[in-house]
Amino acid sequence: MKSARHKVLHPVAGRPMLLHLLASVSELKPERQVVVAGAGREQVEAAVAGTGAVIAVQDKQLGTGHAVAQAHDALAGFAGDILILYGDVPLVRAETMRAMLDRLNQGDEPRAVVLGFRPADAAAYGRIIADGQGVIEKMVEYKDADAAERAVTLCNSGLMAVRSTDLFVLLDKIGNDNAAGEYYLPDIVMLPGAQSAVIEAEAWEVAGVNSRAEMASVEADWQDRRRAEAMRDGVTLVAPDTVFFAYDTVLGRDVLIEPNVVFGPGVTVADNATIRAFSHLEGADIGVGAEVGPYARLRPGAKVGPKAKVGNFVEIKKAELGEGAKVNHLSYIGDAIIGAGANIGAGTITCNYDGFFKYRTEIGAAAFIGSNSALVAPVKIGDGAIVGAGSVVTKNVDADALCLVRPAQDAKPGWASRFRAKMQARKAAK
User: Fold this and answer.
1) Predicted TM-score of the model (pTM)
2) Fewer CB within a 10 Å sphere, N or C end of the chain?
3) Angle at 154 between CA 148 and CA 156, to 5 degrees
4) What angle do CA 97, 98, 101 make, to 5 degrees?
5) Which residues, at least 6 apart from 298, have a Cβ–Cβ distance to it below 8 Å?
6) Cα–Cα distance between 47 and 70 in angstroms, integer?
7) Alpha-carbon span 249 to 235, nearest angstrom
8) What pLDDT is stored for residue 40 in this prediction?
9) What distance in Å separates the CA atoms of residue 151 and residue 338, rounded to the nearest whole number?
C-alpha cells in the first residue's frame, strides 16, 4: 500500500477493512476472536479495542499456515469450529461464514471447508480441483501448478472452516517444501486421512486488497451494490454512479438524491427528504421531508428537523434546526439550536469559537435573522425576534424584539460626482 497505515486499516466505505470483517463475524456471536498480526500490530491492536478480539503476534512472516499457528495459545481450551479469515478480504458476508460452518458439520464431516470462487481472471490464485459433490481432490498454489491445473477456474480464497480439535494437529504436520519456502495453510487439506470440501462464493465477496488500485476496485464494487440496494428500497438516485455511501448510511423511503452527493459515516435520512446536488454529509440526521443543498456541507452533530431547509453554500456543524427552519444561503451555523420556523438570512455566521473554547447560540422559534449578521456566542435570540441585516449581536435579544446593531446611515449629496471630478483632474495633471 506504500503507507504508514497498516494495510487492513485502510477504509472501504468509510470503515477500516478489518472492522468490516469483524462486524460480519460478530453476527455469528463467536465465543472468541483472534487477530494475528505482525508488523504494525500496535495499530491493529488499537483499532480492535472494544471489539472483543485479542491479538496474536506473528513475529516472522513464514506463510499462512505459520500465521494461523500463532493463534494456538489464544484458542487454548476452545472446543468448537474455527473460521480462518483474512483482514484484507473485508466483504465476506455472515451468511457465507454460516454456510461454511454448516458444510463443516454435515453428515460426511469434512476435515475442512474451503471457500472457493471463480473470478473473471483466475490470474495467480491457487487452484482447487474438486469432484461434482464439492469434495476436494487437490489444492495447489499457482506457482506450483502445472498447465492443466492452471486451466482450472475454481480458485482458493484462502478462507477456511476447521474444527478446533483438528486444526493445530494438522498444522503441525505440514512442511515448507515449496517454491516460496513457506508453510501454506491449504496444505492441511491434502494431508492423508480425511477428505475436505469446497463451497463457492461470488468473486466480489472474497476480493482481496493488496494495493491502492485493488482497494479502489473493492470500493467501486461495494458502492455499486449499495446503490442498487438503495433503489430497490425506494430511494431515487438521479445519477447513481455519482453518489457515494458510507457503510452505515440509513435512507428512508421516497428519498431523492441528486447527482454528486457524498455520505460520510453516521448519516440517517428520513422519508421524503431531498439531498440536492454536490452536497457532503457526515454524522448528520435529516428529518422527514427536509431539504439539503445544493452545495451544502453537514458536519457531525448536524440535525435537520422535519421540513427544514439547508440551502446552497451552507455549513452546519453540531447544530439542530427545528421543524420548518430555513438556512437558505451562504451561512455557517455551528454549536447552535435553531427553533421551529426560524429564518436565517444569507451570510449569517454563528461566531462559536474564540480560539480557545466553543460557545452556543440559541435562536428561538419563528425568529428572523437578517442577512450578513454575526451572532457572537454565547447568545440567545428569543422567539419571534428580528435581527436587522448587518448586525453584530453580542447580547441576548428578547422575544419579539427588534435588534439593530449598526451605525446610522449618513448620505452626502453630490459627493460622488465631486470626488470623480477631482480624481480625473489629478490624473490629467500627471
Assistant:
1) 0.90
2) C
3) 105
4) 90
5) 267, 279, 280, 281, 282, 283, 284, 286, 292, 304, 310, 315, 316
6) 20
7) 12
8) 85
9) 66
Residue ranges with strand state E in 106-196: 112-117, 127-130, 136-140, 155-163
- Active centre residues (catalytic): 329
Amino acid at 44: V
Confidence of residue 275 (pLDDT cuts 50, 70, 90): very high
CA distances, 102 to each of 137, 182, 366, 418 (Å): 21, 30, 60, 93
Contact 262, 278 (CB under 8 A): no
**Segments in 121-189 forming alpha helices (H):** 147-150, 164-171
How many residues in total does the chain contain?
A: 430
pLDDT tens digit sequence for 314-361: 999 999 999 999 999 999 999 999 999 999 999 999 999 999 999 999
Cβ neighbours of residue 308 closer than 8 Å, sequence gap 6 or more: 287, 290, 291, 321, 322, 323, 324, 325, 326
Q: Which three cell numbers stand for residue 9?
A: 486499516
The tens digit of pLDDT for each residue in 190-242 reads 898 889 999 999 999 999 999 999 999 999 999 999 999 999 999 999 999 99
Closest CA relative to residue 183, chosen from 57, 67, 60:
67
Nearest Cα to Cα of residue 316 among 270, 254, 363? 363
Predicted pLDDT of residue 12? 97
Q: How big is the CA angle at 228 (ends 225 and 232), to the nearest 5 degrees?
A: 135
And the C-alpha cell for 209? 486488497
Report phi then psi at 269, rounded to 5.
-120, 120
Q: What is the pLDDT of residues 395-426, one digit of tens each?
A: 999 999 999 998 888 899 999 999 999 999 99
